[in-house]
Design goal:
The chain has about 300 residues and is an alpha/beta fold. The protein has two domains: about 5-15 and about 45-140, no CATH class; about 160-300, Cytidine Deaminase, domain 2. It has helices at about 65-75, 95-100, 115-125, 165-170, 180-185, 210-220, 240-245, 260-270, and strands spanning about 5, 15-25, 35-40, 45-50, 55-60, 85-95, 105-115, 190-195, 200-205, 230-235, 250-255, 275-280, 280-290, 300. Strands 9-8-10-11-12-13-14 form a seven-stranded mixed beta sheet, sandwiched between helices. A five-stranded mixed beta sheet has the order 1-6-7-4-5.
Length: about 300
Amino acid sequence: MQHPSISPPDDDTLSPLSRHAVHVFGERGVAPEGVVRDDTLASEVPVALVFNGVSHAVMMATPRDVEAFALGFALSEGILDSAADCRGIDVQAVDASDAGLPEGMPGIEVQLEISTRSFERLKDRRRSLAGRTGCGVCGVESFAGLDLTPQRVPPREWIERIDLATVLRAFAAMAPRQVLNAEAGAIHAAAWATVDGELTDLMEDVGRHNALDKLLGALATAGRLAEPGFVLMSSRGSHELVRKCARLGIAAMATISAPTAMGVRMAELSGLRFWGLCRAPRGVLYADGLGGAPSASTASVTASMP
């Protein structure tokens, strides 16, 4: 499979973390007047996604793994059918004044060169997505614009191996790899694990949708989207996350928080195995990936950590 060529960003690539002086009050051992300290915050910058010279979306994101984010977004939103439809990606930091943004708020522009077929389809259904962090439906003007038609995931003979013990084993390995969140908090993670629960990849971003797109983009670039495994999210399970996974043929997902009802329904319709509320030693199987919802007697299970 042909994969996109990616031009490295300039040397002034924006940092994913930022240091700020803060005034802390109410902490044990701190005087009533408080104390001034340095604090680490997560960076959040506007990332403009430009396809064949036409600006399509501006997403608020953490300025790291931007190339993977752009490719993952293009794939998971159905702009591209495969990574081979992307001919190249170029990333440039944009000064705040040049971008027309407030002082101290720079941006990033990502130029993607895509196939003629993909670009013509994009022009037919292009809509503005500029707005909130990782929002999956910003700019939609009608119900039809939501595009909620489920993408059916092909059956996987290994799907029942994604059991609670496997899911919890993978979640236990996430925290040590969430290096940005350890520094700043407020940062989501999307990870990939094998059918044995071995965590192999992890991406971080202030937006959960963005973190997932980064992960999907990295897997696509490496030609690994078809390998057996599942996605883990440090967030709730919404319908957008399920749809992104199903669109790319990923058959299982697990989230640390609860899902939404629409997220579960999307998983059922897509044939995706969906674990939620995965906090050891417990997890809830909301959709089994076998063609139906699990029975009430088996939906919530508890297991000992391996």
